[in-house]
Amino acid sequence: MKKYVVTVNGNRYEVEVDEVKGDFSSSAHVAAPVEKQVSPKPAATPKAAPKAGEKIEAPMPGTILKVNVKEGDSFKAGDVLFILEAMKMENEIKAQKDGKVVQVITSPSSQVNTGDALAVIE
């Protein structure tokens, strides 16, 4: 049995695969029943745990194209903090109020889902 990590629609799953031996060239071969089907468990993602503060979350699933801030940066309401590509469109994620970046959780090329934390601000 071999273990693999597979990513499907941005979700990581740990799977185990059994090697099947035999000649499968015959069209009359009938597969043996599998013992039981188990729902895959998502593998642990190596994202940093968010620090305390207000989180800026992804408004929709997509890919982070650009991160315009780093930890310690101050910003004003309306500043573009991230560029998120979703459905082949670039979406600006803007600050809703003035603040300071405590932690940047995402990076360019990261796949995010709706509600994923992108940064922590104060």
Q: How does this structure look, described?
A:
There is one protein chain. By secondary structure, the chain is mostly beta strands. It has a domain at 54-121: RNA polymerase II/Efflux pump adaptor protein, barrel-sandwich hybrid domain (OB fold (Dihydrolipoamide Acetyltransferase, E2P)), CATH 2.40.50.100. It has no helices and 10 strands. The protein has strands at 2-8, 11-17, 54-57, 62-67, 74-75, 80-86, 89-94, 99-104, 111-112, 117-121. The chain has a 4-stranded antiparallel beta sheet with strand order 3-10-8-5, with no helix packed on it. Strands 7-6-4-9 form a 4-stranded antiparallel beta sheet, with no helix packed on it. Strand 1 (2-8) and strand 2 (11-17) form a beta hairpin. The radius of gyration is 21 Å and the shape is elongated. The model has no long low-confidence stretch (mean pLDDT 81).
Primary descriptors:
mainly beta, 122 residues, elongated, 43% strand, 4-stranded antiparallel β-sheet, single chain, OB fold (Dihydrolipoamide Acetyltransferase, E2P)
The proportion of residues in beta strands is 35-45%
**Rg, nearest Å:** 21 Å
How many strand elements? 10
- Helix-residue proportion: under 10%
- Averaged pLDDT, please? 81
Q: Which structural category do the helix and sheet elements fall into? A: mainly beta
Element-level helix/strand string? EEEEEEEEEE
Helices and strands in order, then pairings?
Elements (H helix, E strand, L loop, with lengths): L1 E7 L2 E7 L36 E4 L4 E6 L6 E2 L4 E7 L2 E6 L4 E6 L6 E2 L4 E5 L1
Antiparallel strand pairs: 1-2, 3-10, 4-6, 4-9, 5-8, 6-7, 8-10
